[in-house]
Amino acid sequence: MYASIRGTRIFFDIEGAGLVPDGPAMRQRPVAFILHGGPGGDHSGFKPAFSPLAARMQLVYVDHRGQGRSQKGDPDGYTLDENVEDLEALRQYLGIETFVSIGTSYGGMVSMAHAARYPDSVSHLIAIVTAAHGGFRQAAERIVAARGTPEQQRVSAMLWDGALDTVEKLKHYYAVMGPLYSVKGQDPAAGADARARTLHEPAALNRAFGPGGFLRDYDIRDELAKITARTLILAGRHDWICPPEFSEEIHRLIPGSALRIFEHSSHSIRADEPEALLDAITGFVGR
């Protein structure tokens, strides 16, 4: 499905019922927006990993502008600020009063910024393996230098240099970096079929990470105190690109937030500890 908003078309998909029978009445389930990372990927990596959540809430999977099945456009518009405004416009388009915002990696950056700028729109915020400022890049470079193979060091340098400029290069990057993204040695999509399903968009990735990319000076730490949603922060102990100290910092900056670090996970908790991840999310929203 598509929403024509803010001069573009945003793709979204819905899983699970919003209204369910509850004795003599119909009960409204929470609506959860699922925001993917990258940038430069799509929502498909969350299917079927997040599908069990549809038993407790209605899921709205979103492809950021210019990515996945959303409309392509000028890469200059592929920024966090635009993604935030798109998310708020999509909420209004769908007629949703408040929603559960579940953002992973870059999607967590969008979720946090949106919750800070539109606090009345978010009931619960779940920020997964993310960071509140661009310092995560320097930390990731140090980790790859210490733990990475020569080929991992080479392709990660291509990420920072904005040199992953074709779909083939992006696929090779994720295949090589899989053992760093997951302690089980899987890439974030967890499997060959899932990798094949992902729609990659190099322009969006390079707009964020390449020379002059917006994530180089990204910093929303001063905004986090404005978040009023109940907040859960989830991190992987062995995460190479958003190490857990960045989640600990977010926890300190968002009043009343809760933090959980998954001791047997890297950046892809949904590949490393999937059942524990789902339990954490459903338990938090249920409370």
Describe the structure.
With 287 residues, this protein is of the alpha/beta class. The chain has a single domain (2-135, 219-286), classed as Rossmann fold (3-Layer(aba) Sandwich), CATH 3.40.50. It has ten helices and ten strands. It has helices at residues 80-94, 106-117, 136-147, 150-161, 167-181, 192-197, 202-209, 244-253, 269-272, 274-286; strands at 2-5, 8-15, 19-22, 25-28, 31-35, 58-62, 99-104, 122-128, 230-236, 258-262. It has an eight-stranded mixed sheet with strand order 1-2-6-5-7-8-9-10, sandwiched between helices. It has a two-stranded antiparallel ribbon with strand order 3-4. The radius of gyration is 18 Å and the shape is globular. The model has no long low-confidence stretch (mean pLDDT 95).
What is the topology?
Layout: E1 2-5, E2 8-15, E3 19-22, E4 25-28, E5 31-35, E6 58-62, H1 80-94, E7 99-104, H2 106-117, E8 122-128, H3 136-147, H4 150-161, H5 167-181, H6 192-197, H7 202-209, E9 230-236, H8 244-253, E10 258-262, H9 269-272, H10 274-286
Parallel strand pairs: 5-6, 5-7, 7-8, 8-9, 9-10
Antiparallel strand pairs: 1-2, 2-6, 3-4
Helix pairs in contact: 1-2, 3-4, 4-5
Q: Report the helical percentage.
A: 25-40%
Distance between the termini: 31 Å
User: Mean of the pLDDT scores?
Assistant: 95
Number of strands: 10
CATH homolog superfamily: Alpha/Beta hydrolase fold, catalytic domain
What count of helical segments does DSSP give? 10
The oligomeric state is single chain
CATH class: Alpha Beta
Low-confidence stretches: none
Structural class comes to alpha/beta
How do the SSEs run, as a string of H and E? EEEEEEHEHEHHHHHEHEHH
Strand order of the largest sheet: 1-2-6-5-7-8-9-10
Strand count, sense and closure of the main sheet? 8 strands, mixed
Count of spatially separate domains: 1
Compute the CA-based radius of gyration.
Answer: 18 Å
Give the strand content: 15-25%
The CATH topology annotation reads as: Rossmann fold
CATH architecture term: 3-Layer(aba) Sandwich
Overall form: globular
